[in-house]
Amino acid sequence: MEIVDATVIVSSPGRNFVTLKITTDEGVTGLGDATLNGRELSVVSYLRDHVVPLLIGLDPHRIEDTWQSLYRGAYWRRGPVTMAAIAAVDVALWDIKAKVAGLPLYQLFGGASRDRVRTYGHANGRDIPELLDSVRARLAEGYRSVRVQTGVPGLETVYGVHAGTAIAPATADGVRVDARALPVVEDWDTGRYMRHLPRVLEAVRAEFGPDLPLLHDAHHRLTPQQAARLGREIERYDLFWLEDCTPAEDQSGLRLVRQHTTTPLAIGEVFNTVFDYQTLIDERLIDYVRSAVTHFGGVSPLRKLFDYAATRQIKSAIHGPEDISPVGMAAAIHLDLAIHNFGIQEYSGYTPLTHEVFRHAFTFDDGHLHPGEAPGIGVELDEELAAAHPYSPAYLPVNRLADGTVHDW
Ligand code: GCO
Ligand code: MG
Q1: Contact call for residues 124 and 149 (beta carbons, < 8 A)
Q2: Domain 117-373 CATH superfamily
Q3: DSSP character at residue 133
Q4: pLDDT tens-digit map of 142-171
């Protein structure tokens, strides 16, 4: 079998998604997600200009060899653009291999290690009462674990709450209403946030009791010293995890956090390779690894990462926000079902139009996902509908402190 065609499809059925479609001489097709929120077109160019020409004529079954040649052959390694492009190729080839085998992808990974995949959803509120309503809404949708984010008194806009909903707002025809040609500026004050968060968790525990698994995302905003203090202060609220407490590319900083708190830590959605995790895993500085299939070079390296993490009893928690397309999500769910050290899967849902553009075999029921039994990853792209909703520029916000200094967002 030979790869005869590879095309890159950009579509915005609510938000921008980049999809690679690989076709073989036998007419088998595979899909891969290459979406990099806010930098989508750079991955499109990387694929179209530099990767697609290398794929034509290759044997699609040689996934590992293709992966290694794209990673090592570029000479310039790692980074989100490169690794998103390689991820799309990797997943598309696994999709083809599993279709040819006539099996859902998880069967090629050793089969199911569990019956279904536990998820968590997003609850957001501008203030505590709005957050409590949002938690109720997620529970009504079936979620059994909830991430809680609120506005902070004195700040205008905070990560996770400016949209007020779990899903980016979209008009009926699928055009993002928050799409903008330039990033918006949000404000940030670490002191206010650190004083407010314990009150938020107190209110949520008072309302929903001790049993509901609660998560919180600090979104890379604290220093190790601040994270150590916050983690210790919120121990009594028994978080499932505190996510991205620091910009963790400074891996040794997590030693300080770990020395001071037993609050479980989850890190890694912006990481691209196993090397970003080396100290964190070797020294057991985290409890969950958070990389997305889409930003980590695909399911091939992510499976290796999970095996490495398992040697330290660290579990998986694949990044699954609404800016990972249903193609990337489907690949994640197959992996979640198969690996032993599965922890939890993030799933924040999609706009109705996104579900139409990407028709998928995976299902969400009772707070759990299942990849379905369709051969491959189980996603089909409606290319006509995708083309009717073209790319529209959209950027993540930028954070500034009161004096104008840029801060991590
Ligand atoms: C999460 C993430 C996302 C990111 C987003 C950036 O935990 O789901 O923090 O919400 O902010 O993926 O594009
Ligand atoms: Mg996060």
Answers
A1: yes
A2: Enolase-like C-terminal domain (3.20.20.120)
A3: H
A4: 999 999 999 999 998 878 775 433 334 433
How is residue 349 written in tokens?
A: 């849902």
Radius of gyration of the chain (CA): 21
For 180, which DSSP code?
Answer: -
Domain definitions of the chain by residue range: 3-104, 117-373
Fold classification of 3-104 is Enolase-like; domain 1 (3.30.390)
- Ligand 1 atom 4: residue of nearest CA: 321
pLDDT digits (tens, 9 = 90+) for 167-213: 344 333 444 445 667 889 999 999 999 999 999 999 999 999 999 99
pLDDT at position 171: 38
pTM for the model stands at 0.96
Instruction: Please give the mean pLDDT across all residues of the chain.
Output: 95
Distance 339 CA to ligand 1 centre (A): 23
H/E run at residue 370: strand 368-370
Measured from the CA of 219, which atom of ligand 1 is nearest? 9
Burial class (CB in 10 A: 0-12, 13-18, 19+), 82: buried
Contact 141, 364 (CB under 8 A): no
